[in-house]
């Protein structure tokens, strides 16, 4: 189809010619075909500009055809043709992509951004939105087809490298996809036909030196020609893209046939992955510090070296005869590491790899990642070493050594039989240490790490930090603090030394040295599993791989895990003096168990030995004499045999929480355990963490499961056996418990601790000590764990152990841990102890132990008392020193629970029925609770019970006796103190005294005891005067003993008070009737009666109606009132007495009148005793005038009488009548006449 060059102005013409409608799909497609035929690359700028403007319009028309039949026509026309505009030409569908990170023209182009709006059209027509792995592979194949055997140019090389790296990073699963990669000759070859050089030191002796340096093909030992992949493609990328490993191909054919050389003596050799970025990443993982030296010790251990020496050499060596001018910067101070093993070909291979886990198939190798050695780049950029007949130098930056490249950044030099030291004396004289002469094969390995000076640090691509000799000394100091423990778990290395050399002429000076020696008993070597442990400790046959060892292990181990304990002595020489450290180790192997563990069998490459070892520090001793530099530990042990047997008392500062995790060397992981734990852990690549976690998957989960299996099923048993050995080694003491983990730590150690306790419990490990039966170590299932909720737990353990019960002597944290992990064990409880003692009676060492046991047995006592759990318990302590049993009430004799006065009341009479008074108050209260339950043979003392016991407490003949003579403390009679206790008890506990009325218990004077009788003649002693006491006794009353004060609420019913009322009641009790009272005082003296009257006639007795009529009547019948004239003592009732009237002359008063001592008495007699005072008229009429004959001879009295009568009549004339009738006038006849008669 032609295109008209011009515009049509006629619409009719345009319509008839079909120009007015847009062109159809077939037309557009045809035009695109024409454009793309000869315009793969458009070089004409004008045409390119026109196409850039026209193509969007064309694509816009095609956009309108999407989802129409026209689009199918377009697809059919354009299929397989070049029609896609890419900005500078046209491309086919398989040469373009909508989006992509790489622009790989002419093999693959990306749609320009200005055409992105036509995305839907391009997708509809089959353009890829993104390139898949297969698309990148196709690009390489097209490139290979186009180039044939021609080498790639620089741009193509860059493109192929980018594609290869992209393919390696993308998910890639289809192994049928063909991939082409460049070889070292810059030709594209199928990846499966290439090899990558992962064994650069293995070069066939049949190949000339020049061929290795200039050709891409290497002839193997069998003559096979191999094509090497381009050096800019890393081994990791090559491995992922199907390139074969030269190591795997050639080692199987002729691993020992390689002979590397450079100019006849040296050749390119080294870590072909020596990328500085990779090393930087490794240094980030491996922190600077003593861990670097540990890595070197690890390498020596894996090489079966027995000795490791570190040396800081400050010598500045010559710089003239060096391999290259750049090497002069590395002739200064250096750190050396010597060991007495020689690198094998496998070791050389391993050290040239980075992170290839080359030691995994060695059953006892410590390292597994191939990364550890590279941590030496912390202080050097140029590590070198001599071993056997080889000198090896690494230069990761490929900027110091001659003849190396970034793909092979190092040299291996065979010096035996060569004149290498003569040719380069300055370069190689730094290696002339530790017996190395660089002429004969060196029977060891000597690493030299020249320190990074300021000059080389500034241009280093690995690390910019200077490492000075002072930094190495600091490193030595940190390492020295840990080095004694470093040897613990190493099987081969026995000695580690640290030296310093100040200069070229100075000698090496020893800074620190540690040596290890086993001091176990000889019989420990004869265990049935000695063969397996011998394999573990370096006695294995050469060539045994891990599968063979595990197979042998599984056949050698039965259901129980084999274990072995031994003592290790580490002797340490240092600036602070010489010390000897004694350690105890316990190791355990798992055999059949490992096969059932998914973590161990899921991946052959990750299978580790199921072995673990625990180490615990026993003690350290300062040595009196220093070891010589050449001395060895065997000599020391032979001359100092007593070191392992140092007594426990010399142990100082044992750290029971500083345990670390080891993977043969210490890891920066503090476990919180009191021991070190060593096992074949799965570690992170920097050896700083062990794999553990519940959120892992894939390989991480398998590693975590393996570590958990080791800890729970191997470490825990080893730990348990260690505890058993420690128990026998140091005996039962507080120190022993410091070996136990009792605090809750972090996982995974917490789960290991739990398994440890379960293992100890399940396998009968004898780690608990009991003093029972003379003292012995027992298993947990045999033991009874103490109860520390009891405040005397330790004393109880002693008591029960002495009684034969296997109670463990263990601290509370240990018991709590067993209770948490193994709750089914026997933990002491009151119920358990009661059951054991009821089942079998035990003998206790003393009474206090038995009482304490009883106290614990009652610890859980609650109300109401569960009686059945106590019946038969033989722990009731009696006062007489014997012991009885808790029984049902009525089965045996009653036992009384009393204390204080109650105890003293019964102790002398019934000690065999009395609970011992030495029990505590708390125990007494609990026994009282038991007694009050009324289910037991125990009873509290009550008044009723006491009354029944009196026949055993008092003489039997006293019962029903009204009065007895009391001789306190003699002939079985109660003492004064006992009687006081009795009355004290009665006062506090017995409300009703009447129940004791059968017994004479009332103490009175003259050493008598009376029965309790109501309204008795017994009076309290209130400090009576001698006269009063004498009078009362003469009257028949009794007085309570003055030295025996009694108190009781009912005592007033039986004893009269020391008041007037009490005295009167007592007198009535004696007389029986008031009328007979007068006769009671026949023997009383006048003074006594006067004192009685003074006591009774006190106004205080007559207030408040204290005295009733009976008492008044009694008073009147007491002959204690003095008659006026004769002064005789008479009662007031016989005859009736009168009070003296006022103003009457005393001479005229007779004995009918009572003489008063005070006006107060006068008032009492008149007011309360009803004794009247006669009127004067009555007085004179009845007592004077009628008795005038008595006064006639008394002139004075007569005159007074007559004077008084005169005055009475003057006062009251009416009395004349009364007087006039009285015969008081004496007549001449001598008769007495009435005045009225005159």
Automatic annotation (TrEMBL):
<protein>
    <recommendedName>
        <fullName>Sacsin/Nov domain-containing protein</fullName>
    </recommendedName>
</protein>
<dbReference type="InterPro" id="IPR058210">
    <property type="entry name" value="SACS/Nov_dom"/>
</dbReference>
<dbReference type="Pfam" id="PF25794">
    <property type="entry name" value="SACS"/>
</dbReference>
<feature type="domain" description="Sacsin/Nov">
    <location>
        <begin position="272"/>
        <end position="510"/>
    </location>
</feature>
<dbReference type="InterPro" id="IPR036890">
    <property type="entry name" value="HATPase_C_sf"/>
</dbReference>
<dbReference type="InterPro" id="IPR052972">
    <property type="entry name" value="Sacsin_chaperone_reg"/>
</dbReference>
């Amino acid at each position: 189809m032609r295109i008209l060059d011009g515009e049509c102005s006629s619409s009719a013409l345009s319509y008839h010619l079909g120009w007015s409608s847009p062109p159809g799909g077939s037309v557009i497609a045809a035009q695109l075909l024409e454009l793309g035929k000869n315009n793969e690359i458009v070089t004409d700028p004008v045409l390119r500009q026109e196409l850039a403007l026209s193509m969007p319009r064309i694509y816009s028309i095609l956009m309108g055809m999407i989802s129409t039949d026209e689009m199918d026509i377009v697809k059919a026309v354009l299929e397989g043709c070049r029609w896609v505009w890419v900005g500078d030409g046209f491309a086919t569908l398989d040469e373009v992509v909508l989006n992509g990170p790489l622009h790989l023209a002419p093999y693959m182009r990306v749609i320009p951004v200005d055409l992105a709006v036509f995305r839907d059209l391009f997708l509809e027509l089959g353009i890829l939105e993104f390139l898949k792995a297969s698309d990148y592979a196709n690009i390489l194949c097209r490139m290979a087809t186009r180039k044939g055997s021609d080498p790639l140019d620089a741009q193509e090389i860059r493109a192929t490298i980018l594609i290869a790296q992209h393919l390696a990073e993308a998910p890639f699963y289809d192994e049928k996809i063909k991939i082409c990669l460049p070889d070292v000759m810059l030709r594209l070859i199928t990846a499966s036909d290439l090899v990558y050089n992962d064994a650069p030191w293995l070069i066939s002796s049949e190949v000339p030196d020049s061929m290795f340096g200039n050709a891409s093909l290497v002839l193997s030992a069998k003559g096979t020609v191999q094509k090497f992949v381009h050096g800019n493609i890393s081994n990791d990328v090559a491995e992922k893209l199907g390139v074969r490993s030269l190591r795997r191909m050639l080692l199987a054919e002729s691993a020992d046939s390689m002979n590397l050389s450079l100019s006849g003596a040296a050749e390119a050799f080294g870590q072909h992955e020596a990328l500085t970025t990779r090393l930087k990443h490794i240094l980030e993982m491996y922190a600077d510090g003593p861990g670097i030296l540990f890595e070197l010790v690890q390498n020596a251990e894996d090489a079966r070296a027995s000795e490791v020496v570190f040396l800081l050499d400050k010598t500045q060596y010559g710089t003239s005869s060096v391999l290259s001018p750049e090497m002069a910067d590395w002739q200064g101070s250096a750190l050396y590491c010597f060991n007495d093993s020689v690198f094998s070909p496998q070791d050389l291979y391993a050290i040239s790899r980075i992170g290839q886990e080359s030691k995994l198939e060695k059953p006892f190798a410590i390292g597994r990642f191939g990364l550890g050695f590279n941590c030496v780049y912390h202080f050097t950029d140029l590590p070198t070493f001599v071993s056997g007949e080889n000198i090896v130098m690494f230069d990761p930056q490929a900027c110091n050594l001659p003849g190396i490249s970034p793909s092979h950044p190092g040299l291996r030099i065979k010096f035996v039989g060569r004149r290498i030291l003569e040719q380069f004396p300055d370069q190689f004289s730094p290696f002339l240490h530790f017996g190395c002469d660089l002429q004969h094969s060196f029977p060891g390995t000597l690493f030299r790490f020249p320190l990074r000076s300021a000059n080389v640090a500034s241009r280093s691509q690995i690390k910019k930090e200077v490492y000075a000799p002072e930094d190495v000394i600091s490193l030595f100091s940190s390492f020295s603090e840990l080095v004694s423990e470093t040897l613990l778990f190493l099987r081969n290395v026995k000695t580690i030394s640290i030296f310093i050399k100040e200069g070229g002429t100075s000698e090496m000076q020893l800074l620190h040295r540690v040596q290890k020696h086993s001091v176990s008993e000889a019989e420990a070597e004869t265990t049935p599993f000695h063969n397996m442990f011998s394999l573990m400790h370096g006695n294995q046959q050469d060539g045994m791989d891990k599968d063979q060892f595990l197979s042998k292990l599984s056949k050698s181990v039965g259901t129980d895990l084999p274990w072995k304990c031994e003592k290790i002595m580490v002797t340490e020489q240092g600036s602070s003096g010489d010390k000897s450290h004694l350690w105890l180790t316990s190791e355990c192997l798992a055999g059949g168990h490992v096969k059932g563990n998914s973590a161990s069998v899921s991946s052959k490459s990750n299978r580790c030995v199921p072995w673990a070892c625990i180490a615990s520090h026993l003690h350290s001793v300062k040595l009196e004499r220093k070891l010589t530099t050449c001395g060895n530990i065997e000599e020391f042990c032979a001359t100092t045999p007593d070191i392992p047997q140092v007594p426990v008392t010399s142990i100082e500062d044992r750290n029971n929480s500083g345990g670390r995790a080891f993977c043969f060397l210490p890891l920066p992981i503090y476990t919180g355990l009191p021991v070190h734990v060593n096992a074949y852990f799965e570690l992170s690549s920097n050896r700083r963490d062990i794999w553990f976690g519940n959120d892992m998957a894939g390989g991480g989960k398998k590693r975590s499961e393996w570590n958990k299996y080791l800890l729970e099923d191997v470490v825990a048993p080893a730990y348990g056996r260690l505890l058993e050995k420690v128990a026998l080694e140091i005996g039962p003491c507080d120190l022993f418990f410091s070996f136990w983990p009792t605090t809750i730590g972090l996982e995974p150690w917490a789960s290991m601790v739990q398994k440890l306790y379960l293992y100890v419990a399940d396998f009968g490990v004898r780690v608990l000590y009991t003093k029972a039966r003379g003292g012995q170590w027992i298993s947990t299932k045999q033991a009874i764990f103490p109860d520390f909720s009891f405040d005397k737990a330790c004393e109880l353990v002693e008591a029960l152990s002495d009684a034969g019960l296997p109670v463990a002597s263990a601290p509370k944290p240990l018991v709590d841990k067993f209770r948490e992990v193994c709750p089914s064990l026997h933990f002491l409880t009151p119920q358990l102890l009661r059951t054991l003692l009821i089942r079998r009676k035990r003998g206790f060492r003393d009474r206090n132990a038995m009482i304490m046991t009883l106290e614990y047995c009652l610890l859980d006592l609650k109300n109401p008392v569960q009686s059945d759990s106590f019946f038969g318990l033989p722990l009731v302590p009696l006062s007489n020193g014997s012991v009885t049993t808790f029984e049902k009430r009525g089965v045996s004799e009653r036992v009384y629970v009393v204390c204080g006065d109650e105890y003293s009341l019964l102790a002398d009479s019934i000690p065999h029925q009395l609970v011992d008074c030495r029990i505590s108050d708390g125990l007494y209260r609990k026994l009282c609770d038991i007694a009050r339950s009324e289910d037991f043979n125990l009873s509290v003392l009550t008044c009723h019970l006491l009354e029944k016991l009196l026949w055993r407490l008092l003489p039997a003949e006293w019962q029903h006796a009204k009065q007895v003579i009391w001789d306190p403390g003699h002939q079985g009679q109660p003492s004064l103190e006992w009687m006081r206790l009795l009355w004290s008890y009665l006062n506090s506990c017995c409300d009703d005294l009447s129940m004791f009325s059968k017994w004479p218990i009332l103490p009175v004077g003259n050493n008598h005891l009376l029965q309790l009788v109501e309204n008795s003649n017994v009076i309290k002693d209130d400090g009576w005067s001698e006269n009063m006491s004498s009078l009362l006794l003469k009257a028949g009353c009794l007085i309570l003993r003055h030295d025996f004060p009694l108190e009781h609420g009912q005592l007033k019913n039986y004893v009269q008070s020391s008041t007037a009322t009490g005295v009167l009641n007592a007198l009535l009790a004696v007389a029986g009737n008031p009328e007979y009272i007068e006769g009671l005082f026949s023997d009383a003296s006048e003074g006594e009666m006067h004192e009685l009257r003074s006591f009774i006639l006190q106004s205080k007795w007559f207030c408040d109606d204290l005295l009733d009529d009976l008492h008044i009547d009694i008073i009147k019948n007491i002959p204690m009132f003095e008659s006026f004239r004769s002064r005789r003592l008479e009662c007031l009732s016989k005859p009736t007495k009168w009070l003296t009237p006022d103003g009457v002359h005393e001479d005229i008063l007779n004995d009918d009148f009572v003489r008063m001592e005070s006006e107060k008495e006068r008032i009492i007699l008149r007011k309360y005793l009803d004794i009247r005072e006669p009127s004067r008229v009555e007085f004179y009429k009845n007592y004077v005038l009628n008795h005038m004959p008595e006064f006639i001879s008394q002139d004075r009295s007569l005159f007074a009488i007559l004077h008084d009568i005169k005055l009475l009549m003057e006062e009251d004339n009416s009395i004349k009548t009364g007087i006039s009738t009285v015969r008081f006038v004496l007549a001449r006849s001598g008769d007495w006449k009435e005045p009225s008669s005159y």
